[in-house]
Write a structure and sequence with these properties.
The protein has 63 helices and 12 strands. It is mostly helical. β7, α47 and β8 form a beta-alpha-beta unit. Residues 1136-1147, 1202-1212 have a biased composition (Polar residues). Residues 1071-1087, 1114-1124, 1180-1190, 1213-1222, 1265-1274 have a biased composition (Basic and acidic residues). This is Death domain-containing protein.
Length: 1286
């Protein structure tokens, strides 16, 4: 066999003869025993001549190179062959690894075989003596080889594929590794350019961490230095895995054991030990990463707190960073409050100041125990930590103001510091209510502060008013200060000053009366709420109060007695008048004679009019029209201009804005609408649609005409007696054919339980029309079961069946027979989002065609079905003979039309009609009070530009009902600006405001005032998910609101609100408001004492509550989200601000009523042939580029609704935008939106959400849970009053 030198000479003679010399090369490498040199003749010849020849032949010799690479890695003790492998991995044209994934995994596994470290002579006794294994020749070559291999695999796009194999190798290397295995493991995890992918390897991490823990605790591992190979090996594995792996709960237990062990060792070093390095790595990679999951990190907190006590600054800063991450989780930090306070007082880290306020809320006693120590430390504390203490003192002042009194001078010193001014003044304002005497000599200084910093005037005014209540002398002094401020302060603060003046007047009203002349001129002020506040002060000074009203009542009683005496006297006068009447009777006889003559003349005129009417009727009948005879009477009612006239009817019937414009020029627009409607629809369906639309519009006068016409038709042509020879199935099963075996076995068991089911394979025969049979089965059924799968949600025919069931108001019960996301994506998502499903699928394997569900789930399904259908006793088998539905099984998926609430006319009371004219703001500002200062600035800027804005502190005062004011403000506003912060997303009141806004379809403009995830987590995520926010997190933006972000807000506001228009409301109360007044009066009469403020429930607050909570016990929040239902238009009272309790009704078993399909906007009569109505689907989310081009959809083209995909529309010309917005149809669920306007307004794209097409889904009425009806209960007919409009 030739030597390596001979083979090298052979290569040099003819480099092109690769096939000839490559077998010799492999043999020479296999037999080579010279491990000392890092290079020889053969290695040079291969890397120069052979590789150049291979690259020139375009992978012709790739197989030889693969064998060569494998041979080099098998010679693991030879440095030169590692370097030859490095050359092969680094060169792209030698091997294309994308085609050799299996071989790459084989090469990776060669590194798990243990190989002893062989040092060179120089490393044993030369200059490199004692160097660590990673610095030896073989160690450096091994690490370079692995890094080159990972770079080559990443270059050829297979690194992610083989990463799982690398992790398997790391698991084996971590179990008592030798020196070279440590170097190999470190090399796999330390490549920064080609990081190892840990996706899908989470199940291997527990074993990996367990191996490391056992090795570390074996006694053979010393990690005192953070730079030795063993420390680097462990740290690189933990750091890389924690950074790339998911599902931390799978390996939290094992990583916690390592964390606890390293904390028991010496952490300090230069600058810290290897144990300290591992503690920092786990804190950063696991604790900080999962700080929101208390269950995972709770056990780590004691160790992190322990690190706060280290003298090493880097370890202490790392611990401070971790603690700051879960600062809002006060209950988690409460047990360690003393340690955190100690570290804060030692000023080890400014980050710990963030925890003071949450810690006080969770454990106030521990904070108060160190209160004096905190106050003493403030004198020498840096401004940052001082700010944190003042933030905490704000809460202390509300609960324990007495503790702050000794430190009043300290706060007065800081009140002139611009950095602390606002916080300090607020704290002082809270203290002044309980300790006004402490501020008598400090008012002058505080007034100067208010002059320098105007935004503190509200707190300074509060302090002045508190002092003014002490005695009359102080009242004179403080009242003068406030009156002087009235003359110089900005308009936005006038109402605040006046409220504090009234506080002084409560104790010293005579002092307030002296300044009446200074107050009355402000009655003409244009500032919001100032005139009302002035009137309130004047009424107070004049003594117009409840006591004065009682005196007035007594006076009225005296007047009534006097009136009774006068009535007696009047009776005597009446007797005298009788004589006079007799005399005038003769004169009346003369007048009668004249009237008789005029009557003869009118009789002649009536004959002429009757002839004219007959001729007009003849002309009308000759006119070609498809509308019935009673259409003329409807036209006479709807043609006059009204908030619910013919234009609203056209929108309800689904006609487009262009159609409305054309009919506006017609002399009889209502007749034109009805004629076209009857032309494109069947008469029966058209009549029912018109009747339903009129009922939903509240036009009972017109609906009565249609009902009488239908009753007359029934008398002329009676309805055919239904064929009852065979009882149709009452349970309709909708499914996708790929799961037919599972559905058939479900049907079999349902019929064993007594429920006859409709299934296409059982009810269809040869020659039957598919859609006709489905329509017939659906209409006859009482409940629809949807067998939900991934393919079911994407099936066009299944979508049609679900839409038909929804339009027929059939109860829908989703049954999951395979695991899918809920609600399923596609056009079903809007409908299914409000329903709860029953899960039939399990993780267990089953035989198709046999039972695969749990008995409890099937019992739940039987309970839901029996709510709507009584089982057939003849069909029930012994298996289900003894099954009895539970009475308290509330239906979770019932979906029927809401019934109108009947109101007793005798219980209604009229409102006072003399309502003062009130300016209704067009812009409603919704915010959380922590941002009140910035919101005041925003309010000032918007009002200065001419916008009329609603802000709670500007519109509300003492005695005002909170929820009714907010409800009225949102309902009357044209647009709502939501100031989004983390606390805003958690606030219950803010969630109610957003929910009401979303339910009323008001445009929402979100302003992001703090950095947070979008959409916010929690109940607000659904309304905000489709909206784009305006980023106002910048300090400059929030300070003045004069930058581009504010300009963007102004542009969006101008799309909905105008700067010159104001809405004046002076109309008397409507009928829908009277029940609300009556209800309020009844509550007032029944209550003998004023209830606590927190227990008062107004109709407006009830409306903001989750409807599911009114009739059902509390449930988990996640379930409540699934049960949220859209507002129905069946009850007008719901839309006028009053709350109508939802009544539970028994299921409607009248098949004839169920067969009435609600009209939709379809201009093609053929769509009703099969009674299947396709539902529109939203465009795919991933197609963001196409979404940006989509505009809100119009219903002018009926072809757009024939499929399940929404076509894309282009933006109309700018000059037509306003007109198009006024005429395009939108969801008409809320009739209140159309009050006072001709055509409902379309929410603009910029407010509705991301820049993609808005699919106008049909609004659906969703039923509430009803009382369970007994199977033998009498049938009750119920009118369906839901009109689905597209």
């Amino acid at each position: 066999m030739p030597s390596t030198k001979e083979v090298a000479e052979l290569i040099k003679k003819d480099p092109t003869a690769v096939d000839a010399y490559m077998p010799l090369v492999l043999e020479a490498i296999r037999d080579d025993q010279n491990h000392a040199n890092w290079c020889d003749d053969l290695k040079l010849a291969i890397s120069r001549q052979v590789f150049e020849e291979v690259k020139s032949q375009s992978n012709k010799h790739e197989q030889h190179m693969l064998e060569l690479c494998e041979m080099c890695l098998e010679k693991r003790s030879a440095t030169k062959w590692y370097y030859l492998a490095v050359d092969m991995f680094e060169e792209k044209r030698i091997i294309n690894w994308k085609q050799h994934v299996a071989l790459a995994e084989k090469l990776i596994k060669t590194f798990e075989v243990p190989v002893a470290l062989v040092r060179s002579k120089d490393e044993v006794s030369g200059l490199s003596k004692g160097c660590p294994p990673s610095d030896t020749g073989i160690g450096v070559a091994l690490m370079r080889c692995i890094h080159a291999m990972m770079a080559g695999l990443d270059r050829d796009k297979i690194l992610k594929k083989v990463s799982k194999c690398m992790v398997e190798v790391l698991v084996k290397l971590s179990k008592m590794p030798n020196e070279l295995q440590i170097i190999a493991g470190h090399a796999f995890c330390s490549s920064s350019r080609q990081p190892l992918s840990w996706d899908g390897t989470e199940n291997m991490l527990p074993e990996l961490y367990t191996n490391l823990y056992e090795w570390m605790t074996s006694g053979n591992v010393d990690l005192k230095s953070k730079r030795n190979d063993k420390t680097q090996f462990i740290d690189s594995i933990i750091s890389s895995s924690l950074k790339g792996a998911r599902s931390p709960s799978k390996y939290a237990k094992e990583i916690y054991k390592i964390h606890q062990y390293v904390l028991t060792q010496e952490l300090d070093g230069d600058p810290y030990s290897g144990y300290g390095l591992l503690a920092i790595t786990i804190n950063s990679g696991f604790v900080e990463k999962n700080y929101g999951n208390q269950r995972l990190i709770r056990d780590f907190v004691p160790g992190v707190v322990k690190m706060l006590k280290c003298d090493n600054k880097q370890l202490m800063m790392n611990a401070s960073s971790c603690i700051t991450c879960f600062q809002q989780q006060g209950d988690l930090l409460a047990p360690y409050a003393d340690d955190v306070m100690e570290a804060f007082l030692d000023e080890k880290s400014d980050l710990l100041g963030h925890c003071l306020k949450p810690l006080y809320g969770a454990s106030p006693e521990k904070i108060l125990s160190r209160f004096d120590q905190l106050a003493e430390a403030m004198e020498d504390m840096n401004p940052t930590n001082k700010t944190y203490i003042y933030m905490m003192w704000d809460d202390v002042a509300k609960d324990n103001a007495k503790l702050l009194v000794p430190h009043l001078d300290l706060m007065m010193d800081d009140v002139t510091n611009a950095r602390f001014c606002h916080q300090v003044v607020i704290i002082l304002g809270t203290m002044s209510v309980k300790f006004p005497g402490k501020f008598v000599d400090k008012i002058d200084k505080l007034v100067k502060v208010a002059k320098q910093t105007p935004y503190t005037i509200h707190a300074v005014s509060k302090i002045v008013a508190s002092v003014g209540q002490i005695n009359e002398k102080q009242a004179e002094r403080c009242m003068k200060i406030l009156v002087d401020k009235l003359k110089t302060i900005e308009d936005m603060w006038l109402s605040v000053i006046m409220m504090d003046m009234k506080r002084i007047g409560l104790k010293h009203v005579e002092v307030l009366k002296k300044y009446r002349a200074d107050i009355e001129p402000f009655m003409k002020s244009q500032a919001m709420r100032v005139p009302d506040m002035v009137q309130s002060l004047i009424d107070f000074m004049d003594g117009r109060s409840l006591e004065a009203l009682a005196d007035d009542v007594e006076d009225v009683k005296e007047d009534v007695q006097n009136l009774d005496d006068r009535v007696t006297e009047t009776e005597e006068n009446v007797d005298r008048l009788d004589k006079t009447v007799t005399e005038q009777g003769q004169e009346i006889d003369n007048v009668k004679n004249e009237v008789t003559e005029q009557g003869q003349r009118l009789g002649d005129l009536e004959e002429v009019v009757d002839d004219t009417i007959v001729r007009v009727d003849e002309i009308d009948r000759k006119t070609i029209t498809n509308a019935p005879k009673w259409s003329r009477d409807i036209a006479n009612l709807l043609n006059p201009e009204h908030e619910h006239d013919w234009r609203f009817l056209a929108i309800r019937l689904g006609f487009t804005g262009e159609d409305v414009r054309n009919w506006a020029l017609s002399p009889d627009p209502t007749m034109a609408i009805l004629a076209e409607w009857y032309t494109i629809h069947k008469s029966s369906e058209a009549t029912f649609a018109i009747l339903t639309a009129l009922q939903d519009m509240g036009r009972d006068d017109a609906a009565t005409i249609v009902e009488e016409a239908l009753q007359a038709a029934d008398k002329v042509v009676p309805k055919a007696v239904p064929d009852i020879s065979e009882k149709p199935p009452r349970v309709f099963i909708s499914y996708q054919w790929d799961h037919q075996p599972e559905v058939k076995v479900i049907k079999e068991h349902l019929e064993k339980a007594g429920f006859n089911c409709w299934l296409d394979i059982g009810q269809m025969g040869g020659g039957d029309s598919l859609f006709a049979k489905i329509n017939e089965g659906m209409r006859a059924a009482k409940v629809v079961l949807c067998m939900c799968t991934e393919k079911y949600s994407k099936s066009e025919n299944c979508n049609k069946e679900v839409n038909l069931a929804n339009l027929l108001n059939k109860p829908i019960i989703p049954v999951l027979i395979e695991k899918i996301d809920w609600p399923p994506s596609g056009s079903m998502s809007m409908l299914f989002a409000q329903l709860l499903y029953i899960q039939f699928f399990t993780d267990k394997e089953y035989v198709r065609g046999e039972k695969f569900w749990e008995d409890a789930k099937f019992a739940e399904l039987l309970g839901q079905i029996s709510y709507h259908v009584a089982p057939d006793e003849e069909m029930i088998t012994d298996e289900y003979r003894n099954w009895v539905p539970q009475i308290d099984d509330l239906p979770k998926v019932v979906k029927t039309a809401n019934e109108k609430k009947s109101t007793d006319d005798n219980t209604k009371s009229e409102k006072v009609t003399d309502q003062a004219q009130e300016i209704i703001p067009q812009v409603f500002i919704s915010y959380q009070w922590d941002k009140q200062t910035e919101i005041k600035t925003l309010y000032s800027r918007l009002t200065s530009l001419g916008f009329s804005c609603w802000l709670d502190i500007m519109q509300m005062g003492g005695g005002d009902p909170l929820y009714s004011k907010i409800d009225k403000g949102i309902r009357n506003a044209k647009v709502v600006v939501s100031i989004v912060t983390p606390k805003y997303a958690l606030s219950a009141n803010c969630r109610r405001e957003v929910s009401l806004t979303d339910a009323l379809r008001k445009p929402i403009i979100p302003l992001l005032m703090q950095r947070m995830t979008w959409p916010p987590e929690g109940p607000m995520s659904m309304p905000f998910a489709q909206l784009l926010y305006i980023d106002c997190t910048g300090e400059s933006t929030q300070k003045e609101f004069r930058d581009a972000k504010f300009d963007e807000l102004v542009q969006k506001l101008k799309e909905h609100a105008t700067v010159e228009d104001t809405v004046v409301q002076s109309a008397p109360p409507s009928d829908t408001e009277k029940p609300e007044i009556e209800e309020a009066k009844q509550v007032e009469e029944k209550s003998q004492s004023p209830p606590a403020a927190e227990n008062i429930i107004t109709p407006e607050s009830e409306e903001k509550e989750d409807p599911a909570k009114q009739n059902q016990p509390p449930k988990e929040e996640a379930k409540e989200d699934q049960k949220l239902e859209p507002i129905s238009t069946e009850d007008p009272a719901k839309l006028s601000g009053s709350t109508v309790p939802q009544q539970n009704q028994p299921p409607n078993e009248d098949a004839d009523e169920d067969q009435k399909l609600e009209p939709i906007s379809t201009e093609d009569p053929a769509k009703f042939a099969g009674s299947t109505v396709p539902q529109q689907t939203q465009p795919p989310k991933e197609d963001a580029e196409e979404d940006k081009k989509l505009q809100p959809m119009s219903t002018e083209d009926p072809a757009k609704f024939s499929g399940s995909t929404v076509p894309q529309q282009t933006q109309p010309p700018k000059e037509d935008v306003e007109e198009v917005q006024k005429l395009e149809p939108v969801s008409t669920e809320d009739p209140a939106k159309f009050a006072g306007s001709t055509v409902p307004e379309v929410r603009p794209q910029s407010v509705m959400g991301p820049k993609h097409a808005e699919v106008i889904q049909p609004e659906r009425s969703v039923s509430a849970p009803k009382e369970r009806a007994r199977p033998d209960s009498p049938k009750k007919k119920k009118k369906s009053s839901v009109c689905a409009i597209i």
